[in-house]
Amino acid sequence: MRTAILLGAASAVLPAVSGADILPYWDSTRCIDERVDDLLSRMTLEEKAGQMFHARTSLINDTFDANIKSYVADKHITHYVFSGGVNDARVVAEWQNALQQFSRDEGLGIPITLSSDPQHGWTDDTAVSNVAASFSRWTEPLGIAALRSPELALEFSNIAREEYVSVGIRQALHPTVDIITEPRWGRNAQTMGEDANLTSTLLVEYIKGFQGDKIGPHSVITTTKHFPGGGPMENGEDSHFEWGKNQTYPGNNQEYHLIPFRAAIKAGTRQMMPYYSRPIGTEWEEVAFAFNKGVITDLLKNELGFEGIVVSDWGVVTTRFWGVEDLTELERARKALEAGIDIFGGETKPELIVQLVNSGQIAEERIDYSVRKLMKEKFELGLFDNPFVNVDVAERVVGNEYFSRLGNETQRRAFTLLTNPDDFLPLPQSALNASFYVEGMDPAALEARNLKVVGTPAEADYAFLRLPSPFKPTTASGLAASINNGSIEFNVTEKARQAEIYATIPTVVDIKFNRPPAVPEVAEAAAALMGNYGSSHDAFLDIVFGVDGWAPEGKLPFDMPRSMAAVEASKEDVPFDTEDPLFEFGHGLSYRERLARRIMAHEESLPRPMLAFVSLNVEKPSTIVLLHGGLSCHLEYADFIPLLSEYHLLLPDLPQHSKSFHIPLVSLENVADHVADLISANAHGGKAHIVGLSFGGFAAQVTAIRHPSLVTSLFVTGAEPFQGFRLRASQYPSLIYGFAWSLLGLPDALYWRYAAWMGLRRHDDLLIEMRKNCQLGMLRDEFSTIARYRLGDVGKIEARTLMVAGGRQDDVGASKLAGQVLENRVIRGQRLDDGSRSVVIRDALHAWDLQFPDLFARGVLAWVEERPLPEGHRRKEKKHRQPSEDSQQLEPEEEAAAGETETQGDVAIDCTDINPGEPGPWSAWVYDSRGFYYRCRQPIDSDNLDYEFIHPRTASTLGFVYPPIEPAAQLQITPVTQAYGQIIPILVPVGTYEAPAVAAIGQDLPYQPENSVTPLRPMLLVSPSEQQMTQSTLPQRHGLASAPVDTLTQPSVQNGVAGAMVRHYAAPRSTTSQATSHRERNMVRDVAKGAKSRSKSGSNRHARDPLLKTVDKWLDHVRERPQ
Fold this sequence. Notes:
The protein has 1123 residues and is α/β, with parallel strands linked by helices. Helix content is 34%, strand content 16%. InterPro entries: AB_hydrolase_1, AB_hydrolase_fold, Cellulose_Degrad_GH3, GH, Glyco_hydro_3_C_sf, Glyco_hydro_3_N, Glyco_hydro_3_N_sf.
């Protein structure tokens, strides 16, 4: 019995889930292993054999190709790669549903697993990659590597997963994690560069985004390729072709190429694909990796511990069978199975498997081993329960505005600027009236911007050349044409042709980095040289002209060789070994600074434009400037403008917002200078009071610092210098952007319902402007410049200043500290006592001008007119109850916080009595691997090593910065002396997140929120004496083993400071693992090497011996610890 269900515009049939005749493998209430066992018991040998083949299919006139039905019904093949791009989401979704229904109606009804090569980039070749017209468009993976952003890798893979799943694609035939050690190799474009560790960092997030934390109905399984690393190809040829079948290791550097695959296995990649190549000159058998038992079984499965599915590359039995040319197809299939292959990519001959079993050459149990894994994966993906997709949802999800915007922005960010002599780029505004000669781009892209395109260089003012990486020309078609091999230099004729253009007019050259090119002549002669990793012409033009502040951010993910001869002299398997590279890994210029200088220096080529603004009540004698928050505009203050009718009001749109969107934001200093221009030109008497919220508040403060003569007073709210969480969050603008757009992108009715629940007043025109202003580029600039504004900068403000915090959303603690700085600031040797301070609005949100406009206006007037702040009664906020405006009071911060505590479990967190400038008894600080801080009494009481819990937010007020930019470089494992010359007790968390760390006075501490619920890792406890070490209860309080496992005594004295006792404690055995042990050992060793290197320079000479001995002892302990 089957039941029809409706899926958007397509109907599909599912087996009934009730009734006495339901088979166990259809019963979703049973465990997966039980369902797999039942299914396997019902399968014939022919049906099992069919599951071990991964064929190719495509859309032909929006329907099935000629073979698919016979493959499903007769050959029982249920794994297919979708060939071609997803150009119409609705059509592909309907086709997928029809294919799933056909398969469900046949035999056992096993669902189809649909896979795809990359679809989101710019390489369009059926065999390796496709360009999907309907998907969001990003760079190639090299572009993500150029941005050095694991967060971006996760963001991309999450979006790609959503688009894949919406049309029914459940397997990604990527990531490609081969390492570019051979620049000539034609598959470099799909990799993540030359650095194995960078690749590993990115691919972990890439896999996580596609698969999720657990495989399920919304997962896309990843296929990591090409094991054991396809980079070191002999002479840079490619093993798709017989002439390029050899993989060579002249530097014996196999281990380097395995680094990403080790990371992928730890990250949980579900499938692994060996490459076509055959290794030569190694201990491995000289046969292609698909037939190589030493590589697949011995190395991948046994040594590296991979338990997933091994899929061969396409056509190894019938087409690309390097090293086994003399074997028959049957013998090749047998050799591949014996090597460890679970499923044959690109083949459609399950009869070979049937023959091998029936002839006794392969046991059916070997077939069951692979089929069981393949079927379990289908169950985990939820395909047996519902393989169909909703075509209406697919149409909405695929290529939606948000996804497309992120992809387009990534294209722009990834550009890598290699040369820019005399700050040629970005082009000046005057260039918009020039004439352009172009190659490699559609003139229509320029004409759409009203730019003039001419036919020859002689007629032009500028030339734009968008070129492919050099390659060996060929008349071949198909793969031989698309996989570029051969020379990485332009030929003599092409060099001469380009040189003539460079000599005629200033030329901007942009090279698509399919492979690292050797182009010293271009770097020398071009006005500017850039590289891209896949981008549109619009993206290129935005970068060249600096539109909306766009500028190149990419850093080379590989070395660019100087010549073909240098490449030929290098070793195919060794990274970074070409002699005298033209540009090294990590090279990449920026011209954001140039743009800022242009604006702030009033250069004639790009004079600073005036902010768009509204002027009200011009006849009034005193001026107030109202600066809006980020994403907003001058309309934000509309509700309380009538309450300020006795003042001349200036309401600008800040740079990159609304009517000032054309003005680059660049920095707070740039914004402040624009505000200063506005005041100088329009404020009465050339001075003004400034009111600023959020970003506008920061701009107001910097304006007062840079232009004190223009500012009478400041009223700023939600603009306290970032501390703790906010400082960390500012480093991830893409996440902030995603959160903002998830709210702003809601349907109007839903958005305003949410706003009303929060207590905000409705303002439809403002919402429209905020949606326009929500741009990743703007948010990236805004948060990066705000993050550089520090607490010390507040002390430079000369104007009378009120720092306000909304009690419900702003950082009250940071606001308090800013208020203390204001109250105690000294300007030109004189302490200012002008009443500046901080206050809190108990029940206010961050944007409380939209919540309590009347109170906001009364507060502004009181401060401007130097009257007492509005009074009222104070009350605690009730959950889900909106406070009335009349119940609010502007309260001094110190009063609002008096005696206040927060709670963390059963521990009180005192947020009020910490004075970082006071020595006091609480002067030693301890950090543990859960992300918690403790303060310890000094001097140490030998009878009671006391400690107290301190919340990370409070710790941040002491000036600790999260996270350290270079943890391994900044932190050392060493006995640490406190300012008074005493060695203090410290805990060293090992292997918890980024690097081992020591918590010490005056030293930056890493904050690791991800570890807040993880068990403690093994630690070192350092203490001044054996007695204190023995009597300390601190390890027991941390749940460490009660008895120390080792003791190291170093009775040396340096500058009157006693050497430290070091004792090792182990966490409970159940909280550690072998993998963790290896990671801890490596991380400790790495930090030890860094510390040893530093000691050679003399900076840490007194701690060298104790440090190295301590680490040696620690490594011995880790090595010997039972698992």
